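## retry 2 of 3
previous attempt timed out at serialization; input unchanged, resubmitting
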Amino acid sequence: MRWILPLLICAACGAQPAPLMFGGARHDTTVDGRDYVVYKRENRVEVIRLGHAGRAEHDRIKATMIGIVPWLTGCDVIPASVEGDSGAMRARVSCPKGLR
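## retry succeeded, writing output
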């Protein structure tokens, strides 16, 4: 039982990818004062927003999350595949040859 608290504390520190994204490339960025982490593995991405966001900010944040994917990975988000919210978003991407 002694190990549960330290494990929970470590799990709460920083962005951790979904198990599907383990081993993926990690990209960190800051846009408009907000920190994001992007994980890319094969033809999938996961974008995680760090920090608190007010209710009115969620739509703008989600648009930002979609916009940083091509900038950081060189791959385009497939709009129909976007899942999640302004805290964590997952999607498939289409990448030029050589970036897979």
